[in-house]
Structure formats: C-alpha cells, structure tokens
Amino acid sequence: DGGITQSPKYLFRKEGQNVTLSCEQNLNHDAMYWYRQDPGQGLRLIYYSQIVNDFQKGDIAEGYSVSREKKESFPLTVTSAQKNPTAFYLCASSIGTGNEQYFGPGTRLTVT
Amino acid sequence: KQEVTQIPAALSVPEGENLVLNCSFTDSAIYNLQWFRQDPGKGLTSLLLIQSSQREQTSGRLNASLDKSSGRSTLYIAASQPGDSATYLCAVRGRGGYQKVTFGIGTKLQVIP
Fold first, then answer.
1. Interval A7-28: pLDDT, tens
2. Which of A72, A96, B47, B93 is most deeply buried (CB count within 10 A of its CB)?
3. Rounded CA gap, A71 and A90, in Å?
4. Which residues of A touch B105 (CB under 8 A)?
5. How confident is the model at residue B97, as a pLDDT?
6. Which helix (H) or strand (E) holds B113?
7. How many CB atoms lie within 10 A of CB B78?
8. What is the rounded CA–CA span in Å between residue B23 and residue B89?
C-alpha cells in the first residue's frame, strides 16, 4: 500500500528537550512538507522540500529543523528554541510542489 | 497575502439532506484549490482538486465548484450520511515561486441520523 507514515502518533517531552518526528512516504513523491495545526487556526507551513538534499523555510520555521537525505524521508526536529511546541504536526507529500498534496496521520506532541 | 475563509464554522444537518460548504479567498491568482476532509485526531484526506482553469470537479456524492473571479468555491454533498461527519477544509495554492498553499480553518459538519 502506498502512503505516508508518521511516528509516533503521540509524543510527550519535557521542556528543554529536542524531539524528532518521523515522516516516511513510499509514493515516490519529490516534494514533502511539514505543517503545524493548532485549534482555531489553519494549517501553517514549517518547512518544505522540493527535492532530496534541498529544503526551504516556511512561515513558522523558527525553533524547527529538518533534513532530506533520502527521497522517502523528511524528519522534523522540534528544538528547545521553539517557544510553543505543543501542537498536532502533519507531514504531506506531492509529486511536485504544484500538485495534489497527500497527508500522513499526524503526530500529537505535548511538551510540559 | 492570501486569506481563506470558510463559513459556517460548524453545521448540523439531518441525514439525507443535501448541503453546501463555502470557501472564499482574497487573491484570485490561484493555481488550484483542494478540498480535504479531517476526522478528529487524524490527518487530512484529499477529496477533490480543482485546477484554476476548471469550473468544477465531481467524485461520487461530492461536487466542488470554483469561481475564481469572485474568489469562491463550494463543496456540495448530496444525500448526506452520518459517516460524512468530519471537518472539511479548503486549501488554495498560489501562483509563482513556491506556490504557497493557504488553508482555511474548516467547517465542522455533523450529520444526525
């Protein structure tokens, strides 16, 4: 089955700790994205990657980092510099940046 | 800056009713518009994608229309079922450069048996 997987589904961390969220796709898509979803707000773009070994900041990149060493994988690290990390994080991919986006099931991160 | 608004924020209808969800956007220079469904605590499921050159797209009981000049899209759901209960989001992709996608906050639909 082709699709996007995110792990873990739920993640709990103490304030001050870095945490990495996994995103893997087997759709052979070139473009991948990370979004953050908060109650009462539309999805906001954190980072995107159009091709392997390349990525660009989105609207709210501060306190986050990514890597794109393989086409299938686009992990997101939430660093201790992110002031409000508790949120629902969604990974997506598309054939190219202008095409239909497909989303993973999401990771809910809670930082206390 | 593109802004996407979805009205109403919530909607409750009896089973079997036909309904329309609305999406409006401020910048008509779009590349495409995509409608999604999101169940509580889940990711987004793509429903329909309309390219800027198209007026409508259909999939089963769903029909999405696009009027770029007025900055509006509607999602029509025929013969609603309890399984249609979810939040419906629209997302507008702009033109040029990265082709940024702007999401609405969504309309939460409840279909009552």
1. 999 999 999 999 999 999 999 9
2. B93
3. 18
4. 40-42
5. 66
6. none
7. 12
8. 8
Q: How many CB atoms lie within 10 A of CB A95?
A: 14
Chain A CA closest to residue B103: A42
Average pLDDT over chain A, rounded to an integer? 94
C-alpha–C-alpha distance, residues B70 and A91, integer Å: 31
pLDDT of residue A96: 83
What's B52-106 look like in SS3?
Answer: CCCCEEEECCEEEEEECCCCEEEEEECCCCHHHCEEEEEEEEECCCCCCEEECCC
Phi/psi for B83 (5° steps) reads -65, -10
* Chain B residues inside the 8 Å CB shell of A100: 34, 46, 49
Residue reference for tokens 């699709």 = A3
Of all residues in chain A, the one with the smallest CA distance to B31 is A98
Of A42, A45, A106, which has the smallest distance from its Cβ to B104's Cβ?
Answer: A42
Going by the DSSP 8-state scheme, the letter that residue B84 receives in this structure is G
Residue holding tokens 């996994």? Answer: A22
Burial class (CB in 10 A: 0-12, 13-18, 19+), B83: exposed
Query: CA-based angle B16:B6:B36, to the nearest 5?
Result: 65
Structure tokens at A35: 């979004």
Distances A80 to A14, A48, A75 between C-alpha atoms, Å:
10, 21, 16
